[in-house]
Amino acid sequence: MELDLLTLFWLFLAGGLAGFVDSIAGGGGIITLPALLAAGIPPYQALATNKLQSSFGSFTAAMNYARLGLMNPKELLLGVLFTLIGAATGATVVQYFPADRLESLIVVMLIVIFVYTALTPKLGFEPRPHRIPHGLFYILFGLLIGFYDGFFGPGTGSFWTMALVLLLGLDLKAATAQTKLFNFTSNIVSLVVFIYAGLVLWVAGVVMGMGQIVGAFLGSTMVHKREVKFVRVFFLVVTGATILKLVLF
């Protein structure tokens, strides 16, 4: 379908805002998916195009975090590999099972994360000793969260960030940086599935992707410059907004 220039301009702005938000705390999809639907794009094509544009943002944020020294992609290859496997499996399985049955469970899990973070003011302020071996963590959570992102998706960033903070002892800045690399991995896998199905709207996706690049670069740079408290507040706001979206819409 063809979109007029004004609609593409608004989609570009939506992509920019989402890229900024997503690079800091995840949850950019609560901006971009409604924007695509509001542009009159059918749901399945909106989901597919959303994966295309979000891949631009997650890649930009991940690479900028690496450039700023907040994470080293070479140290995370095991996590990337098992996230890819998990996401590919989830994206395949979702074609045969209705994902909406997961929604109630996901809302409960996000509420637990929100409340726990809110009631633990020092969570993620400083690095702590890891609770399980890094290799085991990346295998287990790469498969689990990768599968979830390929199968359903909302809240993936929150789940990765909390797992990295609680089990690997990362501070919120480092956890946010690693999360974007794993997000990019599962985004790409889902995107390949949608491309194969012929559902991606390339013009809309690339235009939004350009906005994502700008927003993700600004957001990831801000995380590097600001204190952990800023990331924590942003994380709570976005997690709360994701809960509201799942409950009310």
List keywords for this structure.
77% helix, 10 helices, single chain, mainly alpha, 249 residues
Query: Given the structure, what is the number of helices?
Result: 10
Helix content: over 70%
Structural category is mainly alpha
Largest sheet: none
Strand content: under 5%
Describe this protein's structure:
With 249 residues, the chain is mainly α. Helices cover 77% and strands 0% of the residues. The protein has ten helices and no strands. The protein has helices spanning 5-25, 29-38, 43-67, 77-93, 103-119, 134-151, 156-168, 172-196, 202-225, 228-248. Helix 4 (77-93) packs parallel to helix 6 (134-151).
Brief account:
This protein is mainly alpha-helical and 249 residues long. It has helices spanning 5-25, 29-38, 43-67, 77-93, 103-119, 134-151, 156-168, 172-196, 202-225, 228-248.
What is the secondary structure topology, with strand pairs?
Blueprint: H1 5-25, H2 29-38, H3 43-67, H4 77-93, H5 103-119, H6 134-151, H7 156-168, H8 172-196, H9 202-225, H10 228-248
Helix pairs in contact: 1-2, 1-3, 1-9, 2-3, 3-8, 3-9, 4-6, 4-8, 5-10, 6-7, 6-8, 7-8
